[in-house]
Amino acid sequence: MKRKLMFALCVSSFFTPIYAQKQMKSDALVFKNTYAIDAHDSKKDIIAKAVHIIPADKQYEALKDEFIAFIHFGPNTFTKMEWGSGTEDPKIFDLKNLDTDQWCAAMKAAGMKKVIFTAKHHDGFVLWQSRYTKHGIMSTGFQQGQGDILRDLSQSCEKYGLKLGVYLSPADLYQIENEKGLYGNQSAYTDRTIPEKASGTPFKDKRTFRYKVDDYNAYFLNQLFELLTEYGPIHEVWFDGAHPKTKGGQKYNYAAWRDLISNLAPKAVVFGKEDIRWCGNESGNTRSTEWNVIPFDADPFQMEGFRDLTDEDLGSREKLYSAKFLHYQQAETNTSIREGWFYRDDVYQKVRSADDVFDIYERSVGGNSTFLLNIPPNREGRFSDEDVNVLHAVGERITLGYKNNLLTGSNLDKSLLDNNDKTTKVFPGETGELIVSLPHPVKLNRLVIQEAVHSSGERIEQHALDIWKDGKWHQVATATNVGYKRILRFPAQETDRIRLRVLASRATPVLASLGAYYVPTRPPQLDIARDTAGKVSIYPAKSEFGWKPHHEDILKNLNNAFEIYYTEDGTMPSAASQKYSGAFESKGKLIKALAMDKDGAKGAIAQKEMGIPKQGWNLVAASSNLDGKNGREAFDERADSYWQSKATGPVQELVIDLGTAYSIAAFSYTPQRKNAEGMMQSGKLSVSLDGTHWEDADSFEFGNLINDPSTRTYRLKNVKNARFVKVESTVIAGKSQSLAIAELDFFTP
Questions:
Q1: What percentage of the chain carries pLDDT values higher than 70?
Q2: Which of 153, 204, 559, 621 has its CA at a distance of 20 to 30 angstroms from the CA of residue 117?
Q3: Which residues pair with 609 in a beta bridge?
Q4: Whole-number pLDDT of residue 525
Q5: How many beta carbons lie within 10 A of that of residue 146, not counting itself?
Q6: In CATH terms, are 2-23+405-517 and 618-747 the same topology?
């Protein structure tokens, strides 16, 4: 009891009341969004200004959204392109059904708070009933040309409690390629009234605005007016820097856009401009140190263009010292759940795993940025099932992991536990420590720290977390800045005391909240493979997501400690089975394996039927080799490599010497999965003992390979003795003239 009382006294004396914050303020400095750097400012002055920069109210609300969605939908969904040409017939957008309720239900289940809809992409095709173009949904068969996807989404957002944002691409290839296009038409800059008169339903909003702009900027402003006045509250306007062609030297008049947005949607943050910036990549990668107070060479509220900030260091002291302005511009980490921004298919287009998305969530939201995840609807107007399953799994993990603050009931001041960002606590100095004593030991693997950035700016530069174990402190995690939110991740620990140390800061830290959590780890799915030397390896299945990978070790990030157990006789593995410690030789016919963590949680069972070992195999003959694709690649124990013949016809063959004679009962064919070419729809297997005299073993057929390019196994009607095997195609899917084989396997009875 005395020990816990001592720690309680330590904590209570550690903090000073919030009024102390006001006492610390310089008389000359107030908290605001931007500071100019004067020529006579010292380094100390510059840091003092940086500390007094806070997010605008709308920025802070956007920060609290944390996890948001992006929707890319349009002609590219049907053409399977990432960039349209602008010359597409609108009827290519052959939408028959639409279920925006399904979108919003899935996003809500994931824990998302806002969705940004691509109302117009670079092709210029609009997905709402615009009065200023016919290049859009009004010229399609969807709902007889009367459909308005943005309106449906707006209604669904209201139903599910989601905020709505819009992406209106500044680039417009239709307006470029169209003979009467407005983009870069060299029109004069004249005074224009926005919205301009147009046929169609009169505007309910009777406000008008005057701007001196050219034809294209007037067109853009007219469309902005529609989006910002007719679809309910808009919370984010998203711009990118895409400028696909410079026809006529078209300039974007962002000053006019900014003014219109501020009048029509004053609570909307603007991405790509002064409010929110791109994190520097589209892969979900995050900086280890992400400051949102960053230097500018000019006043951001007067700037027209904003360059992409891709450097690893944006806001260190050294960077601030060379600034002309300091400004709060928060980061947004954006990536897609699928390879590419638009839906292509459910077979070849890879989808991020729930592990991957959850990892990005913790790194981005817990790294002082917002996580923007794109989910592209399919050609049925819905999110594909795989995407929905991932969203639900991620939402469940967020809820399960971050629902209960384990520091509740500790001696920690209630102001850090009340989920009220208006109550904050101030450290007595720029460095120090906070010791939290718990009434009983708890298991934890996450610490969430939030600074009071809305009232006191970004201050902490370096910090560490210790846990009390075996009579002493053990450091388990370190990081640099905190900002809006920092999630410290570390292997699970059991303790009744933690210590947060602030090692360096720009001014006395002010905390908004502190929480400890246990996020359950999940044993990974496994892969089983054998090399050409006959050694079997068992390892965590790697995501095949290859589009702009973020090059992060997901398992390491999620602190997933586990052991692998396996059997070689087809029985179910358990903790009593053989523990995997490295590649091994096996004569087993069916290997099964599972991963199990130290708490006994089990992963999914992986299994692999083992074929004839390939170390003695040799290539005898191949029809031909396309682009150096050697026939040996059809049996190199690597599914990512493949043999492919030249396009000389549907009848192609591969002949292999197995090295010794075997009784063959079955074989499997793995197609190459990089594209839909070369899928062996039907064929025949021939066998020989001497390589000269051949016997037809069986004919076979594999269905739906293009849509499902998975490994297929065929059981022979009769067991055949053979040393030499010949696999011959008779029909190649899609009327292809070239055969491809990623892997062949042969099985004994």
A1: 96
A2: 204
A3: 590
A4: 85
A5: 9
A6: yes
Average pLDDT for 704-733? 92
In this predicted structure, the answer to whether residue 155 has a pLDDT above a threshold of 60 is yes
Q: Report the predicted TM-score, pTM, of the whole model to 2 decimal places.
A: 0.86
Bridge partners, 258 (sequence order) = none
Angle at CA of residue 120, ends 115 and 124, nearest 5°: 170
CA distance 435 to 96: 60
CATH number of 618-747: 2.60.120.260
Neighbours of 17 (CB within 10 A): 11
* Helices 385-402 and 354-365, packing angle to 10 deg: 50
Token couple for 659: 């090295």
DSSP for 548-589, please give it. S-----HHHHTT--EEEEEESBSPPP-TTSEEP-S-EE---S
- The token pair at 79 is 């053409």
Residue 201: exposed, middle, or buried by beta-carbon count in 10 A (0-12, 13-18, 19+)? exposed
Residue 398 — φ and ψ, nearest 5°?
-65, -50
CATH pick for 65-277+337-396 out of 3.10.580.10, 3.20.20.80, 1.20.1740.10, 2.60.120.200: 3.20.20.80
DSSP lists the bridge partners of residue 24 as none
Percent of the chain with pLDDT over 90: 81
What CATH architecture applies to the domain 2-23+405-517? Sandwich (2.60)
What is the mean predicted confidence (pLDDT) over 544-550?
78
Per residue in 308-348, pLDDT (tens digit) is: 898 999 999 999 999 999 999 999 999 999 988 999 988 77
